[in-house]
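Example: RseC/MucC-like positive regulator of sigma(E).
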Amino acid sequence: MKNKGIITEINNNEIKVNLFKDSACSHCSGCSDGDKMSCEYTFKTNTTGLKEGDIIDFEMNNNSLLKLGLTVYILPIFLLFFMYFLGSLIKLSQGANILFSFLGLIIYFIILFVIEKIYGKNFLNQNIKISKGE
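Written out as structure tokens, the predicted fold is:
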């Protein structure tokens, strides 16, 4: 996945980047500059040669992106069915099986939230390559 952004702030080896919207209309001149930006992120990188106002390209490894997609979108669906099946093995009623499935899903998302808070920034810093844009 490739994207572009503009550097808004540099502090030691950290840069704050406003990302351009990833759509067909993001690079035209029809609207104001504020409407072209989506959100702001902070990255740790070698800031040599970079200055505020520079446009940069950054890219995330496709394998990392695939793992994230599987973890966030596919695995919860399998977990939902697995918890329903597990509930039926312990002879819960159908309504209890559904509640059991959603309880497992809620616990899974809480675990994902905690893991993201602990390792999220480190994951981004290791898996995103930043280079000076055009």
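The two ends are 18 Å apart (CA to CA).
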